[in-house]
Amino acid sequence: xxxxxxxxxxxxxxxxxxxxxxxxxxxxxxxxxxxxxxxxxxxxxxxxxxxxxxxxxxxxxxxxxxxxxxxxxxxxxxxxxxxxxxxxxxxxxxxxxxxxxxxxxxxxxxxxxxxxxxxxxxxxxxxxxxxxxxxxxxxxxxxxxxxxxxxxxxxxxxxxxxxxxxxxxxxxxxxxxxxxxxxxxxxxxxxxxxxxxxxxxxxxxxxxxxxxxxxxxxxxxxxxxxxxxxxxxxxxxxxxxxxxxxxxxxxxxxxxxxxxxxxxxxxxxxxxxxxxxxxxxxxxxxxxxxxxxxxxxxxxxxxxxxxxxxxxxxxxxxxxxxxxxxxxxxxxxxxxxxxxxxxxxxxxxxxxxxxxxxxxxxxxxxxxxxxxxxxxxxxxxxxxxxxxxxxxxxxxxxxxxxxxxxxxxxxxxxxxxxxxxxxxxxxxxxxxxxxxxxxxxxxxxxxxxxxxxxxxxxxxxxxxxxxxxxxxxxxxxxxxxxxxxxxxxxxxxxxxxxxxxxxxxxxxxxxxxxxxxxxxxxxxxxxxxxxxxxxxxxxxxxxxxxxxxxxxxxxxxxxxxxxxxxxxxxxxxxxxxxxxxxxxxxxxxxxxxxxxxxxxxxxxxxxxxxxxxxxxxxxxxxxxxxxxxxxxxxxxxxxxxxxxxxxxxxxxxxxxxx
Length: 658
What we know:
Blueprint: H1 14-17, E1 28-36, E2 42-53, E3 56-66, E4 76-78, E5 103-105, H2 108-111, H3 114-127, E6 132-144, E7 151-162, H4 164-171, E8 181-194, E9 200-218, E10 224-226, E11 230-243, E12 246-257, E13 268-278, E14 283-291, E15 298-307, E16 310-320, E17 332-341, E18 352-358, E19 361-362, E20 370-377, E21 382-390, E22 396-403, E23 409-412, E24 425-435, E25 440-442, E26 446-450, H5 460-500, E27 526-531, E28 538-543, E29 552-559, E30 565-572, H6 578-596, E31 606-613, E32 617-624, H7 625-632, H8 638-643, E33 646-649, E34 652-653
Parallel strand pairs: 19-26, 30-31
Antiparallel strand pairs: 1-2, 1-17, 2-3, 3-6, 4-5, 6-7, 7-8, 8-9, 9-10, 9-11, 11-12, 12-13, 13-14, 14-15, 15-16, 16-17, 18-20, 20-23, 21-22, 21-24, 24-25, 24-26, 27-28, 29-30, 31-32, 32-33, 33-34
């Protein structure tokens, strides 16, 4: 992948690229890489052993690093008498057909011919920048820093020492002591895994700081100097959307070198990689590109992998020259073999989920809705959730799905995924949530019913008779009021006359006044006794036989001690659903208040309606007349009317879910 592996780092080679990635593994692993580089010279590049102990990971690795060619110096100074200019010249070679005179040259590429560049390049790689310069032994530790394993940390503690071949070469020039050295250093890596788009399996951001601390000590001379460090910043994305259930990866790395000896133009480079797994993640194709950000070749890599419990990787690398100043880079071949065993068994926390619905049956055709109440939580954090609604044949008809935490409520209007109203019947629903570790929990299967209730029509004839009765009651009360007013006036006159007599006589008490506390009985009505408001005592009220519909059983006026009046109606209904009985009662309240508003001058303060249903159930509604008038005029809704009323079932106050 063009070495763009900082933010992926999902095998034992992560020890080199980013030790934080080791904490992603769910197994133990041995990893070995070998290959050919400069002019097909074989060497062992890397060996690593990783052991997982729960959520803690430990590793032991050996690295024999190959130093890339790098760009040759722009400026060179050839000492006298020059190269191959005769006896005593530098690199005297009788077989060579050219010579290079002494002197300072400003531009390597511009002032030398191609054969001269190649010749000096060989000498540069032999005496200055040799392919192998050091070996490393590293102890690795890696662990997740969060419960959901989204933030990972890794550390290498390294011992560095001069390569034996490197020391032996310079020993032949009596300079071996200068190149016999050792050092210790630290590598630190971090990786953060997040999910920003639904179709992404992983979105990783990672940073690797190599050789952030340590010093080099030359064994023979005792000379010490600080190590320079390098850094890498990587971003990777993984998805299973391009090929179903197969992982596709994209990665980008930016690398920087903090070494004053390195040319400024060579201190930064970009790496790009892509990888596609196939056959249930047992076979992979990959490619990569390294851009060195200076007039040198780009490096193209192509590779394949096959793995089960044993994995084999092969990669081919070649240089791509863009421009005349780019040097040639020979092809190379790399092979990696790794063995995975001892899959780690983790007890992952499972999400806690719950779901309920209110009401358990509803009528979408009447504009009703059902409310699903959802809850999901997990120590690792909720990654995604789904609420599925199925019909009696287990066919999915409606689903709600999203990432992150679910909403506390979802309102369903009874439609399917195509927004078509579903037929009446019983449906089941299941709520499921998955956390960021991939653990899934679901609720037990629950049911919800869709139906279309048939509301019995209110008998218009009965309501008309009720209206006529109300008018009669109003006319009667007007007559009674007039009669009481006339009687009161007569009594006042008598009192005036009595006051003029020598011996005052007390006025008659209210209990002696005719008509006090009584109501007249209209033809065909049966007098009844009821109890008025507290302290008022029994008063006579008026009932009447059943009307033709058989729905209304009685209607009468009740006067309280404070003078307020209550109109009471009792009827029998065939409906058994509380919500729809309340709808009937609201309709009756509107009819009654309309009858009271016809200009007859009759007034009451409250309307009480009692519905008998189901054999022995009684549902009562007490409505302020002002509330009923606002409903009749369209100023408030039916629900607002009912919420502003007092409702009781079998004598106990209830608060229905409207």
